[in-house]
Amino acid sequence: MFTISLCMIVKNEECIIERCLDSVQRVVDEINIIDTGSTDRTKDIVQNYTSRIYDFIWCDDFARARNFSFQQATKDYILWLDADDVITSEHQQKLLQLKHSLYPNVDAVSMDYDIALDADGSVEAREKRYRLVKRQCHFQWYGAVHEYLEVSGQLYHSDIAVTHLPLKRDVHRNIRIYERLKKEGYSFSARDTFHYANELKNHQRFLEAINQYHRFLDSVTGSADDKIQACISLADCYQELHDVKQANQVIVQSLLYDRPRPETCCRMGQFFMEQFKNKEAIYWYSQALQQPSEQLFSIHKPAFSTWLPHLQLSLLYNRLHLYENAHQHNELARQFKPNDPRILDNQKYLLKQLKK
């Protein structure tokens, strides 16, 4: 069985730090907390869990802070979390089992990161991240913001999940760091450009975001997943500016980078559905359901491969008066969203149509 060092960077997390540490303290063998300048009770609370508390002078560089946190670890593997992350009881057990079963030659373990949950507790957005890494490999973090951990060697993909449950967030922090770097003449990588564009979009600076997304798409580097996501986000920006033609064109452009993703298929389906080209729309929503699941290190939104295309197919088959097909797809959508009022209202309507 291997041992685990937990490494976290925190600041003013008194409202949530207990929740995080409670969820992981029985799984890890060491807790290292790097405080970047708390002025609340964070450090007092952490002392109930560990004496390994270190101060780090904040310098607007997440990679530096995370690399410092990794330097404090002494156990076989390092697990990193943020203060607003939790590991549920089910996944605590999975991690404990992994401690007994993982082959010692594994250098890094990926876990699901459930970024957002809906009102029913279902996952709205998820991605894979390498969460558990062998200390002896000395893996490094890169990037002042939206930092990433560069791993290599023997990699293992687990089904363990970490859940993100934020109570607060400094929504201006990331863009503030990017704009300081830009002012200082820092040369943005393709990855920096992509994430800077995302921050601009989140701040509703759509024209600037469009410019940065195009710069990213024009670069020779960047993963296919990020380029597809950039096209989808570009489409959102153009929609906000009421430029439907450009929005549709960049969705089509996304098909150049790899096979269609479920969200792309649903966007294509929506395009044809709005034109009442029902058979074409049915084709694309059906494609969304047929795309194979895979390990994604970009953001994956389960709705686009589950209930959403089923609901849209139900509406499309209703247009064609194929009520049996419409009912079947609505029932499949209801399996994923049993309390959704749209699906329940549609169910009542379709049952009436089937009785006629």
Brief synopsis:
By secondary structure, the chain is α/β, with parallel strands linked by helices. The protein has 14 helices and 10 strands. The chain has helices spanning 17-24, 42-46, 62-71, 89-101, 173-183, 190-202, 206-218, 224-240, 244-253, 262-274, 278-290, 307-319, 323-336, 341-355, and strands spanning 4-10, 30-35, 53-55, 77-80, 85-86, 108-117, 123-134, 140-142, 148-150, 155-164.
Salient structural properties:
356 residues; alpha/beta; Spore Coat Polysaccharide Biosynthesis Protein SpsA, Chain A; 2 domains; two-stranded antiparallel sheet; 14 helices; Glycosyltransferase; Nucleotide-diphossugar_trans; TPR-like_helical_dom_sf; Glyco_trans_2-like
Alpha-beta content class:
alpha/beta
CATH fold description of the largest domain = Serine Threonine Protein Phosphatase 5, Tetratricopeptide repeat
Count the strands?
10
Which segments are poorly predicted (pLDDT under 50) over 5 or more consecutive residues? Answer: none
CATH class type of the largest domain = Mainly Alpha
Radius of gyration (Å): 23 Å
Known CATH architecture of the largest domain? Alpha Horseshoe
Strand content: 15-25%
Relative helix content: 40-55%
Number of helices: 14
Q: Strands across the major sheet, in which order?
A: 3-2-1-4-7-6-10-5
Looking at this structure, what is the CATH superfamily of the largest domain?
Tetratricopeptide repeat domain
How would you sum up the major sheet?
A: 8 strands, mixed
Q: What is the end-to-end distance?
A: 64 Å
Integer average pLDDT? 95
Please tell me what the overall shape is: globular
- Kindly give the count of domains: 2
| Order of H and E elements | EHEHEHEEHEEEEEHHHHHHHHHH
Organism: Lysinibacillus pakistanensis
Domain Glycosyltransferase 2-like: 5-101
Protein name: Glycosyltransferase
Pfam families: Glycos_transf_2
